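Thread: "does anyone have the structure for this chain?"

Original post by V.I.:
We have the sequence but no experimental structure in hand. Need at least a predicted one for the grant figures.
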Amino acid sequence: MKLKRQCFPTFIFLAGGIILGMILWRNGMILLSVPLLYGVLLVLTLALLFRVTGSRKESVFYMREFLIEGFLWMTITLGIGLLLFQIHARDSEVLTAFFPENIDGELKAVVYEVRERQYGYEMDVISRSLILQEKEIFLKKKLNVMMYDSSLTIIPGMMVEIKVKDGQIDHLLPRGEEVHSYYWSLLGKGINNRITLRSDGIKVLEEKPQTSKSWPLAVRNYGDRFFSETLQSPHDQVMKSVLFGNRGFLMREELDLFSKTGTSHLIALSGLHIGLILWMGQSFFALLGFGKNQRLILGVLLMILYGIVAGFPVSLLRGSLLAGMLMIAYFRERPYDGIQCLSVVGILVLLQNPFALFTLSFQLSFMATLGIFILYPRFIRWWRGYTSIPEGVRSLVAVTLSAQLATVPIVAFYFNRISTISLLANLALLPTMALLLTLGVTALVWGVFIPHIGQGIAFIANGILYYQMSILQWMEKVPFAYVAVENVTLHWVLLYYGGMLLAIDLLEGGKIHGILERIQRTNQRATS
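Reply from O.Q.:
Generated one for you, tokens below.
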């Protein structure tokens, strides 16, 4: 079995094992012990290796051997997914295990993300240590803190002390219960617990942010201050969300505006940002006289630095890994298979954190990219005869429509609505996004050396943001701009994707039938 042909089914089976683990966990069922699961996987792996290394030419029943190997591979991958979910699920209970009844403690933590809410603040922190019964325990974990009071000013980088009382810690992945969709987004970021308290339960130990110990945090704080001082509201929140991928800057009205017009992906870090960073790096290093290969390497390094500053969310991590694989294919002079590379990226992300599978950002990001890989070349081929339409316009419509068609059921499943003007909204905004991102990054760089130039560039960016928000506000008011849909279940989502694949097969002459015929002929040759 060649690995390159196994990437996509491996990703599917790995995801299936993780989903199986979630179902068992949610229904309160007892999972296999970790050592036993390790042993079963080891036996199956040895059996697979024995089957693959055997001489297939001596086998009369080629198809039977192929099916046995495929079944072993599927079972192993499913088992790995189940094991990953079990390990991460049990690790998520570590913090609550420290707090028996009537035991209070204190957590020392560093704030790395703050989001304003109507009731106060929501913060993501990294704990440094836990003081419990006068004993200090080193404990490095990501936590979400809900503070129902806004009288205390908290900014990223502050060292705080959190007084945790019995009952204030919520486990985001409770056994036997359904997990809220927002909790999955926190779990996908590696946050397993939420602490709820008022401002009297938190004490600032170091008011000065620890930006000297974290340059990405210093860059984000500088960008936050710069855009808050130079852009109008809510344009400053949109710019910060576009550049740093933190939707916590946006109020509910802005989030609903992007959602109703089908443009939510424009305010999330994605391949568009990666392409822009690589292009800007290429242009800048070309002016300095660097060669092509040197520019590629430096561009990749610039891409990695940007990812570190933004915290590498799933959508940006996917784009970065795909771009990195494209670079490897270029240097090795190998063909670039987008679907196989996307599958490898999905496997790597799930191996690192299986909870990412259930996050909206993972699902939208991967399905949009998969839709572009599958549908975009077909749209270009089908529309080849429309020479009266400029090629650039055809490409823009094709890539936008491909992403929209691939994500329609996911949007309907989570938001219970489908935007009917998403294509027009994306066509109106996409051409300005590259310019907006370029102006944002350029304004930040100039703001460090010559603030007045940076402010002037930010003024131009403010005009683009005004245009974008005006277009979206006008489109939102168009009659039937979006359609409300109810009771969208997982069965409808699967039926949609199945129907899409069947439609593609029929339009291209029934390739599924051709594949079955080739398999039959191969089996006949093996048995003759």
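V.I.: this helps a lot. The two ends are 22 Å apart (CA to CA).
O.Q.: and Residues 55-62 have pLDDT under 50 and may be disordered.
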